[in-house]
Amino acid sequence: MGSADQTGSTARKARIEEMRRAQQARERRNRILVITGSVVAVAALVVGGVFVVRSQSDDDSSSTTASDSKASGHWVTGSDGVKTWKGTLGRTHVAKTVTYPMEPPVGGDHDPVWLNCNGNVYTEAVNNMNAVHALEHGAVWVTYTSKAEKADVDALAAKVKKTPYTFMSPDDKQADPIMLSAWGKQRTVTGADDPAVDKFFEEFVQGEQTPEPGASCTGGTMK
């Protein structure tokens, strides 16, 4: 009888020990699963965070809209007929299209590459973002619509060609047949013989309004 009790006790202890080992094994597996799950979760959060930051960075550096072109304000017209933009004119280099609140634009965020403005006469419309960069360098931009007289266009082209830090192009989106623009400045003229043309050139070609005086007007883009 005593031997049978002892045998049963030994078997029971063995089963308990086996159950304990199985329980410990399950706990180890659970801990491993929890740790592994936590690592995966943290890694996912890190990757997700990097993606969000990168996406926001890409959006900030490469895309703009009318509301974030950093060109906000209004015109104030002087007694001489020259309009001055009163407000913010951003100067950040961006990659995607900027929509400007004026046409032609006189400032704001723009393309990293300037439009060549060493007396260049363009016969087709140019990229406003490159043109704005040229204005930042102190250039004067002559623009005209299809309503401008050919004689005036030819005479203005001849003037531009002999004047460094100027350029000329057609712009059928503008309000008047012939307009002159510089950084933060703009005016309409009646024709090539309007005295306001020479006065605008004298005052604003590399004028005091220039954010980057002396910066190059060559070595940029021709489009």
From TrEMBL:
Biased composition (Low complexity): 62-72
Region feature (Disordered): 1-27, 56-77
Top-level taxon: Bacteria
Keywords for this protein: Membrane, Transmembrane, Transmembrane helix
Compositional bias annotation for Basic and acidic residues: 14-27
TM spans (from-to): 32-53
Keyword flag Membrane: yes
Comp. bias (Polar residues): 1-10
Record has ATP-binding as a keyword: no
Protein name in the entry: DUF3105 domain-containing protein
Natural source organism: Streptomyces griseoruber
